[in-house]
Amino acid sequence: MSFVSFFLATLSFFQTKPCFFCLLCVDFLPPKTPQKSLRWKRELGETIDPSTLVVVASPFARTLETATLASSAVGIKGFQNVSDEHNDEDARFSADEALRERHFGGFELQSHDHYRTVWVEDARDVNWRAPPASARGGDGKEGGGGGDREGESVVDVAARLRALFARLEATYSNKNVLLVAHGDTLSIATAVARGGGLGRHREHAQDTGELRKL
Known about the structure:
Layout: E1 4-7, E2 19-24, H1 33-47, E3 53-57, H2 61-72, E4 93-95, H3 114-124, H4 154-171, E5 176-182, H5 183-194, E6 211-213
Parallel strand pairs: 2-5, 3-4, 3-5
Antiparallel strand pairs: 1-2, 1-5, 2-6
C-alpha cells in the first residue's frame, strides 16, 4: 500500500528550536514535474527563508525523488542516486528511517480500500495492529516489506516520530526542517505535534504533493 506525502509542519516551542514543515510525497512525478517544482519553489519561498532550510526524507525511493525535486527548487541538492545512504554533496539533505511508511501487516500490497479498515481500528484503539497475512488466511508471502508480520499501530509510529523530533530539535537550532514522507506517517506526526488524540490522526491528512506547516 502506498500513500505518499510531502509533510511540511511547523513546531515552534522556543526561538532556538527548529520549525517543522511537512510535504506529502507523490507516487508518479512525470509528466507534471515542472509544474510541481515551480509550485513548491513558490510555496517554500513564501513560507520560509530557503537559506535556513534542511530536508529530511523517508528512505523510500518515491519520497527521495519527491524530496529531491522540492529541494532542487530552492537550491538544495538531493540524492543523485536514490539507493545512496548518505548525501555527500549537500549536508542539508538526508534520509531517516523514522519517516518510513507505516507497515500495514497483511494489508501490504493489497487494495487501498483496506486503509479505511485500518483507520476505523485506529480510532477505536491506537494500539491496534493489522494482523499478518497468515492470520488473515493469506499466503504470507513477503513483498514490499512483507505481509507476514504484524503491522504498526498508531502508537508504534508515534514513538519513532517523537524520537525523530527530539533528534532534530537537538541538531537544528534556528532552522526550518522539511519532512518528506507518507500519508499516515505525516498525519500521525501532526497529531503528535498538535495533540488532541492519536486516534484522530486522519483529521490531519494531507493531499498528495501538499506542503503544510505543522
